[in-house]
Amino acid sequence: MLLSIKEMEVRKLPFAETWEPNGFDFSDPAVTQKGPLVAEGVAELLPHTGGEVRVYGRIRTELETECDRCLGRASFHIDAPIDLYYRPLDTTAGEAEVAIDEGEAEIGFYELPGLQLEDIVREQVLLQLPMQRVCSEACKGICPVCGTNRNETNCSCQPPSADDRQPGVGDDRWMALKDLHI
Ligand SMILES: [Zn+2]
Ligand SMILES: [Zn+2]
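Structure tokens for the assembled complex are given below, as produced in the milestone run.
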């Protein structure tokens, strides 16, 4: 959906879009859209700002990614307000004059005919995902020795000690194995 600047010159532009599960392209194969994605809000041209646009409202969806620790599925419920400001890209004002006030929200830029709602929604939804995507804070991950998912099975592997990582050093466990085959 195009948020048309021309239309905003006449009136505030409300939007209410819903994408069915897997109906939205996140351009990220690691992300699966499990629930409907809803974006509701208003786009308006702010008067006396030289073309500044404010887009505000709310985004909601359910996403799934791979857990960073156990490679299982990690689910994320996203429900967040958005409040964004955009300026025309070909602004004639000098760099100093477009300096952003302290504390002001980050400013984006647009070109005519306007802003694509999909681009805004994609960026804002992905921003809601945490840096570390885990299935749960308590996820125990995968055993580095045997590869078992430690959430499902408790293996009895000992964490590798510093000695094991040095190649060529005589290893007691290998010695024991040799004895077995004699
Ligand atoms: Zn996990
Ligand atoms: Zn193990």
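The radius of gyration is 26 Å. The helical segments are 5-8, 117-128, 172-181. Further analysis is deferred to the final report.
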